[in-house]
Amino acid sequence: MVGIWGTGLMTGLALIIAIGAQNAFVLRQGIRREHVGVVVALCIVSDALLILGGTAGIGVLVSSFPLVLDVLRWGGAAYLTWWAVRSFMSALKPAALTAEAPRSRGSVVATTLALTYLNPHVYLDTVVLLGSLANAQGDGTRWVFAAGAVVGSIIWFCALGYGARALSGVLKSPRTWRVVDVVIGVVMLALALKLVLG
Question: Which 8-state DSSP code applies to residue 110?
């Protein structure tokens, strides 16, 4: 059980750490120390809902149509491979993040929700991919895997939002993002291989 929880944790972290619009926004808000608690809470609750919904929804779908798991497995492997290639390409031309001008709480909440729910990748990552990976663990342990992924989300958003100020110097370095992107690429390829070899 602990191993499955740990796999869920690491998978959730690997998927969520990839720097995209949502993470960049959380990081910028953390560097500015503006409405960090609201942003972090919205991101955690949203991720938890999407991960658990994906685990429940995919589970119902797979039990009704077992062939769906194979389709999701191969689709997930293709997506993870694409994400790895994207991360490696990003590592070739890393960019530093810069802080934004101060914003109102309402504007920050609206932006956080938009960056979370209007991003098609969030559904692929949390609902489809994590849902299918959770269900690949089996009926008795899929929720253990999902719980690990949710804890990964909690850890990441808290660290990103509240740790950003302390790490602002390091996080502004393109070299740091090069390392992060390479590590993400390697993890994504390993997960894709695990899905294919099943």
Answer: H
pLDDT, tens digit, 9 for 90 and up, residues 135-191:
888 778 889 999 999 999 999 999 999 988 777 777 667 787 788 778 778 877 887
134: number of CA atoms within 13 Å, CB side?
31
Residue 102 has pLDDT above 50, yes or no: yes
Please name which of 2, 3, 10 lies closest in space to residue 191, comparing C-alpha atoms: 10
Tell me the Cα Rg of the chain: 17
168: which residues sit within 8 A by CB, 6+ positions away? 31, 99
Contact 158, 45 (CB under 8 A): no
CB of 113 closer than 8 Å to CB of 50: no
Distance, CA of 74 to chain centre: 19
Q: Say if residues 135 and 62 touch (Cβ distance below 8 Å).
A: yes
CA pair distance 64, 48, nearest whole angstrom: 24
Least Cα distance to 119 among 50, 29, 72, 195 occurs for 50
Residue 177: CB partners within 8 Å, gap ≥ 6? Answer: 19, 90, 91, 94, 95, 96, 97
